[in-house]
């Protein structure tokens, strides 16, 4: 019986649960072999793998010890927060522990004793791994929910942040946004960022403690109220632009902007009842493995997909070495119900012996040459195996042949270079007088003006004579009475009327000869 069951499970791997299995050993007419399927890891409690950071410094209560009150009992301020006493401390880690029955443990901020300066706190959760949310984010506040807060997300390990949802007791006043509910969104607006008033109003601190980011309600737009029609959701995730990314995060940030007020205005005489206290942050999701892994493990402090289908990387986002005969692709939920693995293929297996180093998905047989060649090489490559760089590009010496960055644009200066091609180290061929790898500089004794031109004058050999000054190496600005390229010529030699007995006499033939000599020395004048 057990044997039969095992056999059944082997034969029907996909009946167990959608996209649970990456491969299965099957027997075909040609003998046993592996069959591959699109697969994804199970959803997990992501708070177990998170790194938390609370800002600004000093926002956590208890240093120095502080008393606080509650909205129920505003004048009985007997509670104390003391960071140095484990029983009275409220460090950030208490947002992620598992609550024992009854007693909530929580992170708590300092009180709003600096009112009217706003009481601001950021709670940043980082996974160093892309996560796909599969259920609501639920944040539990003790002593009342914030009257204004914002949820932000990052998709690139905290380099850039985007608003995810706004929360306020009055959305118009706090964010100039109309209040909306996720339940009212439609198929075309399922990834809209909105402001909700559902989780910010005062309803008595004990009654409603949670603030949600509603993932299920958004899924339900496609999959129906009980998420029964997951096939429809998967189809939409695959096809609707940006929808999958909307549910993907590497980091989340709660920006707490104003604490609970107990249903009234801020009472300045008792600021000790205003603070934030978070007992739990529940984030349910799965590692994003691009449908190439069904396991995700915690290794060296980070989550990591156990990649199948000859893929590799933290998210199985590329093909393993020697498995790059075609470009990497994510696995697909389609076609329903089992999807496609889109596995990476070993070099040489795609089409006879045609390796394209991952720059092309297609090979073509050229009859009269009797060769198989890659078609439409991407990433600026060319050649039978996409093994060369296109003209105007050169080989990136720190990249392997199958790297997307293998070819770098030459970027030759259009004016300074002879053409837009370069040698293997990226050097362009320069016109006379130009230099530098890209030919955008001039050799010494040349100046740049839509290209490089030899200096007419300078401060060394081509000195302007007779008190003339050299203007940007392009010409001498001569004093009255002198002319010529280097002001070497007295006007009175040309026109006797100009003579006024000035020093011009001294700047006679000698200077002219010197100027010509210099020009000749430098090869500019052929005598
Ligand atoms: C919270 O983070 C935002 C950026 O997301 C930043 O502009 C703000 O200054 C931070 N606030 C605090 C109190 O650190
Ligand atoms: C993030 O994950 C990558 C890949 O697993 C790892 O190399 C890196 O050290 C991690 N960074 C941090 C800050 O944990
Ligand atoms: C990955 O490569 C191994 C070794 O060549 C091979 O046995 C296996 O079938 C490949 N898997 C896929 C999904 O192509
Ligand atoms: C060369 O390739 C390496 C490895 O992929 C990449 O990090 C680098 O950015 C590339 N250089 C340029 C100039 O594109
Ligand atoms: C490319 O040209 C530069 C400048 O002429 C030269 O220094 C370099 O050696 C050349 N590189 C190769 C690989 O020929
Ligand atoms: Ca807790």
TrEMBL record:
Annotated keywords: Cell membrane, Developmental protein, Differentiation, Disulfide bond, EGF-like domain, Glycoprotein, GPI-anchor, Laminin EGF-like domain, Lipoprotein, Membrane, Neurogenesis, Repeat, Signal
Alphabetized SMART domains for the sequence: EGF_Lam, LamNT
Laminin EGF-like domain boundaries: 410-454
Membrane topology annotation: Lipid-anchor; GPI-anchor
Signal peptide boundaries: 1-17
Residue pairs linked by disulfide bridges in the UniProt entry: 410-422, 430-439, 478-487
SUPFAM superfamilies: EGF/Laminin (SSF57196), Sialidases (SSF50939)
Domain EGF-like: 453-488
Pfam families reported in the protein's UniProt record: EGF_laminin (PF00053), EGF_LMN_ATRN (PF24973), Laminin_N (PF00055)
Gene Ontology biological-process annotations: animal organ morphogenesis; axonogenesis; modulation of chemical synaptic transmission; postsynaptic specialization assembly; regulation of neuron migration; regulation of neuron projection arborization; regulation of neuron projection development; regulation of presynapse assembly
Domain called Laminin N-terminal: residue spans: 35-286
GO cellular component: axon; glutamatergic synapse; presynaptic active zone membrane; Schaffer collateral - CA1 synapse; side of membrane
Record's subcellular location: Cell membrane
Assembly description: Interacts with LRRC4.
Record's function text: Involved in controlling patterning and neuronal circuit formation at the laminar, cellular, subcellular and synaptic levels. Promotes neurite outgrowth of both axons and dendrites.
Protein name according to UniProt: Netrin-G2
Gene label: NTNG2
């Amino acid at each position: 019986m057990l044997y039969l069951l095992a056999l059944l499970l082997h034969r029907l791997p996909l009946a167990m649960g959608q996209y649970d299995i990456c491969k299965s050993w099957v027997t075909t007419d040609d003998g046993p072999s592996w069959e591959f399927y699109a697969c994804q890891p199970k959803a997990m409690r992501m708070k177990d793998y998170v790194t938390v950071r609370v800002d600004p410094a000093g926002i956590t209560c208890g240093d120095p010890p502080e008393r606080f009150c509650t909205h129920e009992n505003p004048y009985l301020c007997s509670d104390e927060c003391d960071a140095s006493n484990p029983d009275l401390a409220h460090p950030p880690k208490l947002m992620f522990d598992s609550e024992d029955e009854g007693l909530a443990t929580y992170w708590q901020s300092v009180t709003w004793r600096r009112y009217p300066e706003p009481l601001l706190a950021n709670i940043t959760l980082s996974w160093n791994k892309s996560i796909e949310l599969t259920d609501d984010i639920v944040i539990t506040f003790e002593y009342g929910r914030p009257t204004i807060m914002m949820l932000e997300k990052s998709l690139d390990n905290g380099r850039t942040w985007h608003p995810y949802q706004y929360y306020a007791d009055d959305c118009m006043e706090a964010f100039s946004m109309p209040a909306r509910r996720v339940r009212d969104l439609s198929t075309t607006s399922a990834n809209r960022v909105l402001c909700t008033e559902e989780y910010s109003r005062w309803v008595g601190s004990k009654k409603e403690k949670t603030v949600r980011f509603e993932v299920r309600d958004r899924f339900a737009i496609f999959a129906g109220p009980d998420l029964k029609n997951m096939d429809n959701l998967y189809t939409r995730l695959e096809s609707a632009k940006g929808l999958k990314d909307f549910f993907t995060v590497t980091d989340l940030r709660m920006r707490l902007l104003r604490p609970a007020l107990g249903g009234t205005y801020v009472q300045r005489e008792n600021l000790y009842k205003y603070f934030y206290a978070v007992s739990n942050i529940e984030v349910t999701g799965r590692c994003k493995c691009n449908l190439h892994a069904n396991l995700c493990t915690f290794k060296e402090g980070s989550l990591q997909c156990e990649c199948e289908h000859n893929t590799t990387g933290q998210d199985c986002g590329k093909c393993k070495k020697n498995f790059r005969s075609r470009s990497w692709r994510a696995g697909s939920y389609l076609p329903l119900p089992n999807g496609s693995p889109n596995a990476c293929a070993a070099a040489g297996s795609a089409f006879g012996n045609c390796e394209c180093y991952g720059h092309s998905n297609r090979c073509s047989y050229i009859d009269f040459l009797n060769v198989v060649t890659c078609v439409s090489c991407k990433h600026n490559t060319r050649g039978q195996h996409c093994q060369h760089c296109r003209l105007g590009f050169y080989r990136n010496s720190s990249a392997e042949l199958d790297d997307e960055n293998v070819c770098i644009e030459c970027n030759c200066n259009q004016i300074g270079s002879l053409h837009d091609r370069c040698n293997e180290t990226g050097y362009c061929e320069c016109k006379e007088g130009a230099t530098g790898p890209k030919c955008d500089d001039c050799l010494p004794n040349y100046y740049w003006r839509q290209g490089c031109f030899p200096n007419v004058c300078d401060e060394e050999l081509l000195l302007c004579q007779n008190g003339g000054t050299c203007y940007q190496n392009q010409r001498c600005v001569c004093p009255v009475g002198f002319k010529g390229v280097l002001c070497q010529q007295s006007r009175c030699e040309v026109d006797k009327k100009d003579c006024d007995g000035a020093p011009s006499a001294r700047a006679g033939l000698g200077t002219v000869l010197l100027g010509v000599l210099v020009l000749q020395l430098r090869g500019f004048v052929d005598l």
